Amino acid sequence: MSEINLKGKSFLKLLDFSAEEISYLIDLAADLKAKKKAGIPHRMCEGKNIALIFEKTSTRTRCAFEVAASDLGMSATYLDPTGSQIGKKESLPDTARVLGRMYDGIEYRGFGQETVQSLSDYAGVPVWNGLTNEFHPTQILADFLTIKEHFGTLSGKKLVYMGDARYNMGNSLMVGCAKMGMHFVACTNKKYFPDAALVDTCKKIAEESGAILEFIEDPVVATKNTDVIYTDVWVSMGEPAEVWKERIEDLSPYSVTKEIMDNAGPGCRFMHCLPAFHDLNTVIGKEIYEKFGLTSMEVTDEVFESEASIVFDEAENRMHTIKAVMAATL
């Protein structure tokens, strides 16, 4: 582990990192998690300050960054969607240069990848991607730490992503699996397969790593003998409500049910980056039930609450992996 040095490097997408560097971050996260559980202080970034820019709100990402920063001895300034002038009264490069003079690191969660890239280009300090439309790299680190905890290894493990695979989660899981020599399957209507150019990039990576990448429309075929079935909400933050009808029609065959889990095999685990529409205990869940009669969407409550579900291990691991990213880059 000592040979890897990520100090000063931004964490924008997994494509920028080698398999060895990704493994290093996962191992560092596991070490920091063990220290936290044992009550061993690890204030490796004592006295540093970070800015958290959230153009899209979040529960897990914000809490993970704030708790991780505190554990590392740092203070964090949270800037909500109304809390900064990015792109309104002040250009992105100007904002980046101002924040870079005041802070030791900057997290950005928002829309286009070009925004987080521009922040990194101008800030002069490490910038971390808390989610863009295209990529969600801190989530994938948490996912991979979770898989490693449950299976002992990543190499050769089969992960099937069901649902809309065109955006940050489908893209990032495909990249991560390609890098780490895993077996990735996008299981969805062909309208929702990942971007063709990114698929080509990942296929080249897979040739080196031994990863397998597949794109399959039939969920029974796709999920046979699977280690992990992964899904996400069908409509992303910021998308108009009108798209619900089309997504429900197109993606209902890809809902993760007990039948799908049984088909995958007894050792299969269920993962979801959350929040999940598995019951009627949300405003949107109730609205969807009233309009379409669905009591769940991308995953049934039976699967979500089953022993196969490791979603809360995964959610906790957001904090440990984000801590590792900040500690390694600062």
The N- and C-terminal alpha carbons lie at a distance of: 16 Å
Largest sheet: 5 strands, parallel
Rg (C-alpha, Å): 19 Å
Provide the structure class. Answer: alpha/beta
Report helical residue fraction.
40-55%
Order of helices and strands: HEHEHEHEHEHEHEHEHHEHHH
Write the layout of secondary structure elements.
Elements: H1 19-37, E1 49-54, H2 60-71, E2 75-79, H3 92-102, E3 105-109, H4 113-123, E4 127-131, H5 137-151, E5 158-162, H6 168-179, E6 183-187, H7 196-209, E7 212-216, H8 219-222, E8 228-231, H9 243-251, H10 258-264, E9 269-272, H11 283-292, H12 301-304, H13 311-329
Parallel strand pairs: 1-2, 1-3, 3-4, 5-6, 5-8, 6-7, 8-9
Walk me through this protein's architecture.
With 330 residues, the chain is of the alpha/beta class. Helix content is 45%, strand content 13%. It has 13 helices and nine strands. The strands form two sheets. It has a five-stranded parallel β-sheet. A four-stranded parallel β-sheet has the order 2-1-3-4, sandwiched between helices. α5 crosses α13 (311-329). The longest helix is centred in the N-terminal third of the chain and has 19 residues, at 19-37. The two termini are 16 Å apart.
Can you tag this structure with a few keywords?
single chain, 330 residues, alpha/beta, five-stranded parallel beta sheet, 13 helices, 13% strand
